[in-house]
Design a protein that fits this description.
- The protein is mainly beta.
- The chain has one domain (15-241): Fumarylacetoacetase-like, C-terminal domain (Fumarylacetoacetate hydrolase, domain 2, Alpha-Beta Complex).
- It contains 3 helices and 16 strands.
- The chain has helices spanning 34-43, 121-128, 184-191; strands spanning 2-3, 9-10, 26-31, 58-62, 67-68, 73-75, 83-84, 88-93, 109-117, 119-120, 144-152, 162-167, 170-176, 201-204, 225-230, 234-241.
- The chain has a 7-stranded mixed beta sheet with strand order 4-3-14-8-9-11-5.
- A hairpin with a 3-residue loop joins strand 15 (225-230) and strand 16.
- It is globular.
- InterPro entries: Fumarylacetoacetase-like_C (IPR011234), Fumarylacetoacetase_C_sf (IPR036663).
- Residues 29-240 form the Fumarylacetoacetase-like C-terminal domain.
- One of its GO terms (molecular function) is catalytic activity.
- This is 2-keto-4-pentenoate hydratase/2-oxohepta-3-ene-1,7-dioic acid hydratase (Catechol pathway).
């Protein structure tokens, strides 16, 4: 611990344990990158995006009860062989609202954090075959990761920041938030239509272009160290281990 000249106190990261920055009330993850969506569909032999993608945002709710944080070990789940990361960041709702316009949406964002939802790709194909959307492929203990901190909304312009994913120090993904088809303001406007948003809810950016192993045909292995870095927020680091 040290103090600067005006009495502010600083702690070395070597002396503290960084915990999950919040327990979210809910998590809505979006499908928001045209490039990522096209790449993902091509894996299953589909060449064109559905027209609805350009008409309104896609999103689904995922588990908010088994959250991991920075430096937490992520246990390899007992089912599935192809595990993947997803390079995203998220806006955190700061006040209650309904039918929020895109023009006033910034008033409802208290800050931003990094988000990584570990995905079981071989299990995901089974989930998606039901036309019900993601299920167990994205809902398991420590599968949704937030951190390392929250940057308040007055400190970050989310419109064109760099995001990078590294596996064991090797860059796998390098993108910018300008890849988002819908801005956070547009997402909030759509999601809050006839539905109340509450403080502590999280709205995710969606996976960035080439922001996961599925798009480059590379998957995680036991003991891999995943680092997601977002300019202005920091680095979210985790190791995935098959016990």
């Amino acid at each position: 611990m040290r103090k600067n000249d005006i009495g502010e106190i600083f702690f070395s990261l070597n002396d503290v344990t960084v915990k999950v920055p919040l327990q979210p009330v809910s998590i809505r993850d979006t499908l928001n990158s045209e490039v990522h969506f096209k790449n993902s569909l091509e894996v299953v032999g589909i060449s064109e995006l559905p027209a609805l993608f350009y008409e309104r945002p896609y999103y689904y709710r995922t588990s908010h009860t088994s959250i991991a944080g920075h430096e937490d070990v992520i246990p390899w789940p007992s089912f599935g062989e192809r595990l993947d990361f997803e390079l995203e960041f998220a806006a955190i709702v700061g006040k209650k609202g309904i039918n929020i316009s895109a023009e006033t949406a910034h008033e409802y964002i208290m800050g931003y954090t990094i988000f990584n939802d570990i995905s079981i790709r071989d299990y995901q194909r089974k989930d998606m075959s039901t036309s019900m959307g993601p299920s167990k492929c994205k809902n398991f203990s420590h599968g949704n990761i937030l951190g390392p901190c929250i940057v308040t909304s007055d400190e970050l312009d989310p419109s064109n920041i760099r995001l990078q994913a590294r596996i064991n120090g090797e860059v796998w993904s390098d993108s910018r938030s300008s890849d988002m088809h819908y801005s956070f303001a547009q997402l909030i406007e759509f999601i809050s239509k006839e539905e109340t948003l509450y403080p502590g809810e999280i709205i995710c950016s969606g996976t960035m272009a080439f922001g996961c192993g599925l798009e480059i045909n590379r998957y995680l292995k036991s003991n891999d160290i995943i680092e997601l870095e977002v300019d202005g927020i920091g680095i979210l680091r985790n190791q995935i281990i098959k016990f």
